[in-house]
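fold-stage: in
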Amino acid sequence: MLVSIILGASENVIIFSDSTIIQVLTHLISLVNMLGFIVLGMYLMVLFIKVTRRGIEVGSGD
């Protein structure tokens, strides 16, 4: 879904290179994607830390 949006947006920029609105939209889309990846990475890091902490607690409990 996101990939198709990006591809469509980049095609629009090539076709309508004069219009700045579409260029701004593509910049916004790429920014949203970058933020999404950053948030996902942070979430996975927090999840990993929680899992490893649980593992350490369980290990010391035994």
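fold-stage: in (second)
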Amino acid sequence: MKTPYALIDLNELVRRVLSDVLNLDVSVIKPESSLINDLNADSLELRKLMTVTGGYYVK
């Protein structure tokens, strides 16, 4: 059973809504602050995606 959106913090809420919309597992959606740990990322593509998703990217 999924946790109701009203019972989770805002950061987690955004991740879960994005996972529902993008039909992806929530574990692959990382906050923008996780980007610093992803040294192999294509920064231009991630910037485009973060613009679309409001600061989140799919890893």
